[in-house]
Amino acid sequence: MAKVVFLVGSVYGNSTSMAEECAEFLRGQGHESEVFSSFSLAELQQDPEAVWLICTSTTGQGELPDNIYPLYQSLKDEFPLMPDRKYGVIALGDSSYDSFADAGRMLDEMLQELQAKRLGEVLLIDACETADPEGVALDWIKEWIIHLS
Ligand SMILES: Cc1cc2nc3c(=O)[nH]c(=O)nc-3n(C[C@H](O)[C@H](O)[C@H](O)COP(=O)(O)O)c2cc1C
């Protein structure tokens, strides 16, 4: 069974509640899963086995939420290659912005540069298209879970 840690970037709480529902689903399937809204790269690196599931909204004009920005900055500054790290990305946004879901895309690009291995495709959730982001994420994670076995 895998250990999945949700690394949440959220301003208004949508990403947090979505991550909590997905984590509960994973636990129900026998995986270990936790939701973190506050974390540092140094702390996360202490657990080399954990799969990171980035779950972030985009704010401002294509910016990262304040609580996940330090992780991005540390990855950029320290540039720790992590070929053994597995991760996934759920990116919330609103396609009426030119910078649709940029925070999730930025973190995905950074982790790709660091040679981490993405499991599955990035899930983009558009607030213009759904009023039920949790439902969209749950449908996705039911498929995504195959990458954990
Ligand atoms: C002030 C504000 C700025 C936003 N800026 C962007 C943006 O630049 N790009 C985008 O895709 N979505 C943007 N959004 C949409 C949010 O990402 C979306 O509403 C998301 O569901 C919020 O999730 P959260 O509650 O986890 O922060 C913005 C929303 C607000 C209220």
UniProtKB/TrEMBL annotation:
One of its GO terms (molecular function) is flavin adenine dinucleotide binding. Pfam families: Flavodoxin_1 (PF00258). GO terms for cellular component: cytosol. PROSITE patterns: FLAVODOXIN_LIKE. Its cofactor is FMN. It comes from Nitrincola tibetensis. Residues 4-145 form the Flavodoxin-like domain. This is Flavodoxin. Keywords: Electron transport, Flavoprotein, FMN, Transport. InterPro entries: Flavdoxin-like (IPR001094), Flavodoxin/NO_synth (IPR008254), Flavoprotein-like_sf (IPR029039). The keyword Cell division does not apply.
